[in-house]
Amino acid sequence: MHQIREGLWSEAAVRVVIADDHVRHRQLMAMVLALDPRITVIGQASDGAEAVSMVEDLEPDVVLLDARMPGVGGVEACARIGQLAPATRCLMLTMADDPQEIDAALAAGATSYLFKSVESGVIVEAILRAAATGAGPNRSPATATVPSAALS
Predict the structure, then answer these.
(1) Could you give the CA distance from residue 64 to residue 133 in angstroms, rounded to a whole number?
(2) What span, in angstroms and rounded, lies between the C-alpha atoms of 110 and 63?
(3) Quick one: signal sequence residues (predicted)?
(4) Domains and CATH numbers, the chain
């Protein structure tokens, strides 16, 4: 089931879908992003397959994907989204610092690869940069270690 934020969308706002199998991370990220008027969260998915379906239905500008989800993970979802909607940018979020996973995500078309523990402003700026410029792929300096409590 898709969760869509009700209300009017700003035409100028970056439209975002969040995909994470951890409901608390997903909800917290949605609340944080809702504080920025330049971003509108239009959907939340619990796995990669649902994220791909949402991209087809909702046509977001950016998808935040948890790299490790059961079933269709973030890397595979990113590759599918790239085929389905090449203009949609994928930002990979993870708790793990796995160089092979980073390489796989970037090869699948991820614009950036960020740790979930970074400050929320870093994620906001990555979303805005990806939407405005399509910048990437990028091993962002935003992957610096910050206590994971920020999104726990």
Answers:
(1) 16
(2) 10
(3) none
(4) 14-151 (3.40.50.2300)
